[in-house]
Write a structure and sequence with these properties.
The complex is a heterotrimer of chains A (205), B (222) and C (190). Chain A is mainly α and 205 residues long. Chain A has 9 helices and no strands. Chain A has one domain. Chain A is 84% helix and 0% strand. The two termini of chain A are 25 Å apart. Chain B contains 6 helices and no strands. In chain B, helix 2 packs antiparallel against helix 3 and helix 3 packs antiparallel against helix 6. Chain B is globular and about 65 Å long. Chain C has 190 residues and is an alpha/beta fold. Chain C contains 5 helices and 8 strands. In chain C, strand 6, helix 5 and strand 7 form a beta-alpha-beta unit. The longest helix of chain C has 13 residues. Chain C is globular and about 45 Å long. Classes of the chains: A mainly alpha (205), B mainly alpha (222), C alpha/beta (190). Chains in contact: A-B, A-C, B-C. The interface between A and B is medium-sized, with 34 and 32 residues.
């Protein structure tokens, strides 16, 4: 139970930080709309629904990347990993809380992006919405872990896409192809792996 | 086994494998002479998996023991894996050119998987170069290596699935069943490439250890 | 409280220190001196359990009984003092969080600004809040890295009082005059 209350306290902190700074979510929203607009011009006339759907998934992945790059900015700039790691809470709670915050930002961006996509290109089925929701879980879990790695490095913003994009390829396959079972499998595997390994990323001892 | 004995054995095995591939095994009925690259391409690809698997195993050992040697071993194995992975991409590309007249075929699952793995493990080096040497870097590298070994089957499955909506045409490069001669040649080639890996792994590790000892000596003198 | 033998720390080719022995009994006061970049910060991080030494043996208390103040005050700039301390109070599972937080904010003169964002504070006020966070769970061991940094005269006096209390202290500073008298042990980095 203390684990749960730790996660709640940390998630509240993460959401509060964003509420105050108002940086991540507005950027994600603008980015996804701009990306969809670009895709309108990039997509040849008469391109099919699958092609448009592919572009939607690319837009979602890159939007997520934008949010993930910002996920640990407060911790990095103020050295907060030290303070959090010294607290007696389980380190995976830090990951879980941050993943939940990232998930919330992703969902908020998609609440705008999916209707915009439906209006700009072609309609969206229920299957796609479920696929996006499932994909968000995996993106938030893996992306948060890799985001914590990337902020430790010198290259930072440069490093995260390199680390994360190869991991996102299966998500795109599952999303574009509509293989919900595959997305569930991906989530199950990588959520557990990220949960189990996060402590090594933030703490040396 | 001493490293130089291993190196001699490796050279002999590689020589034997080359001899078998070019002078013993008969040409493939469908693809002719060029199919012989199969005996290099596939063993190199399999060895690459072995490298990544070994690197992940050492990564796990590192996270358990926090022994810096396991970190170095994991790094060296992955380093070798990326080199064999690059060779896989190159030999696969040559094979594709010989068989289908194109340098790259998205229809070849194994090749696409290696592209994904190549991207993933190149980022491993970016991660290592970006973080100062020390426990924190070793931890992160180990975690990343573990993700890699799990990503291999997941990506493989994803690429298989993607064939359904990207390229309905599936090339089948493997003949029906290998004959006895083909299987023997394949096994010898595989053993030879594995031996090359073992030798390079030993040599690179020895180099790293000498580096470390030299550094300690310098510090003692300083 | 702390027993460290032959600690050595190295990042790749860069050696930070080696052969450091520290033996601290309860109530001891260790003064760590040396110029910037000599390894004081790294030693404190090792003692806090934030960094793993390259070699050597280390026995130290549980991390939740340690109060660590780093170069940064280790508080969220976009949160208020009250929100910061409430967060850490929860993570440290303090039973009577509100009272303890109120007492500390009073003591360090931050009660009146408890609802204002830390980003609007001067560096000295942030340092005071950092001290509040360090003391929140009433740690037995204080590890303070340049604690007088940015503190004004009044803040420095508050810190003097704190260092006089019954605890085990490790203080790293490049200007040791202020705490010299309290030190029971010294460690000088070159």
């Amino acid at each position: 139970m203390t684990y749960l209350s730790d996660v709640v306290a940390l998630t509240r902190k993460d959401l509060l930080l964003e509420l105050r700074a108002k940086e991540t979510l507005p950027s994600m929203l603008l980015f996804v709309l701009a990306a969809l607009t670009i895709f309108h011009f990039a997509l040849p006339r008469g391109a099919g629904h699958t092609a448009a759907l592919g572009l939607l998934w690319s837009a979602l992945i890159f939007t997520a990347l934008l949010g993930l790059t910002r996920a640990f900015v407060a911790e990095r700039e103020q050295g907060m990993f030290d303070a959090l790691v010294l607290a007696p809470c389980d380190r995976s709670a830090i990951w879980l809380a941050k993943s939940l915050a990232v998930l919330a930002f992703l969902a908020a961006a998609e609440v705008v992006a999916l209707p915009a996509f439906a209006a700009f290109f072609s309609g969206i089925g229920g299957r796609t919405v479920v696929a996006v929701a499932l994909a968000d879980l995996g993106i938030a879990a893996v992306g948060t872990l890799f985001g914590a790695m990337a902020v430790a490095g010198r290259a930072r913003e440069l490093l995260l896409p390199l680390l994360f994009l190869p991991m996102a390829i299966p998500i795109v396959v599952g999303g574009v192809g509509g293989y919900l079972w595959f997305l569930v499998l991906y989530d199950a595997i990588f959520v557990v792996l990220a949960w189990a390994t996060f402590e090594y990323v933030v703490a040396e001892v | 086994m001493k490293t130089h004995a291993l190196a001699v054995a490796t050279a002999a095995l590689v020589g034997l494998a080359v001899a078998l591939v070019f002078f013993y095994v008969p040409s493939d009925a469908d693809q002719g002479f060029s199919q012989r690259i199969f005996y290099f391409h596939v063993p190199i690809a399999l060895t690459s998996y072995v490298c990544f698997g070994w690197g992940a195993w050492k990564a796990l050992r590192y996270l358990r023991s926090r022994d810096a040697r396991a970190d170095t071993e994991s790094y060296v194995a992955i380093h070798q894996g990326v080199m064999f992975g690059a060779l896989t991409l190159i030999t696969g590309s040559i094979w594709a050119k010989a068989s289908w007249g194109v340098w790259w075929s998205w229809g070849e699952n194994q090749l696409v998987l290696f592209l994904v793995l190549f991207l993933f493990y190149c980022a491993y080096f970016m991660l290592r170069f970006s973080v100062d040497a020390g426990a924190s870097r070793a931890n992160m590298s180990a975690v990343y290596a573990l993700f890699g070994v799990v990503l291999i089957p997941v990506s493989f499955l994803a690429i298989r699935l993607s064939q359904n909506f990207i390229h309905p045409v599936v090339f089948n490069s493997h003949g029906p069943q290998m004959t006895g001669a083909q299987f023997l040649t394949f096994c010898v080639s595989f053993a030879a490439v594995l031996a090359v890996f073992a030798t390079l792994y030993r040599v690179e590790l020895a180099g790293k250890r000498i580096d470390a000892h030299l550094r300690e000596l310098r510090e003692l003198l300083a | 409280m702390i027993a460290a033998r032959a600690l050595a720390m190295r990042y790749g080719d860069r050696r930070v220190f080696r052969g450091v022995d520290v033996e601290l009994a309860d109530g001891a006061f260790l003064l760590v001196t040396g110029p910037n970049g000599s390894g004081k910060t790294t030693l404190l991080r090792v003692l806090a359990g934030l960094a793993a030494p390259t070699s050597g043996e280390l026995r130290r208390p549980e991390r939740h009984t340690i109060g660590y103040l780093g170069h940064d005050p280790l508080v969220y700039r976009e949160l208020t003092p009250l929100e910061n301390l409430t967060l850490f109070g929860r993570l440290y599972r303090l039973p009577e969080r509100g009272e303890r937080i109120g007492m500390l904010l009073e003591r360090f003169g931050l009660w009146d600004v408890r609802h204002e964002r830390v980003s609007t504070f001067s560096r000295g006020m942030q340092q005071r809040l950092g001290l509040c966070r360090v003391l929140l769970h009433d740690p037995q061991l204080l590890l303070l890295d340049e604690p007088y940094n940015a503190l004004d005269a009044q803040g420095a006096a508050l810190l003097d009082d704190l260092l006089g209390e019954e605890r085990t202290h490790v203080v790293a500073t490049h200007e040791p005059q202020r705490v010299e008298a309290r030190a029971t042990q010294r460690l000088a980095f070159a």
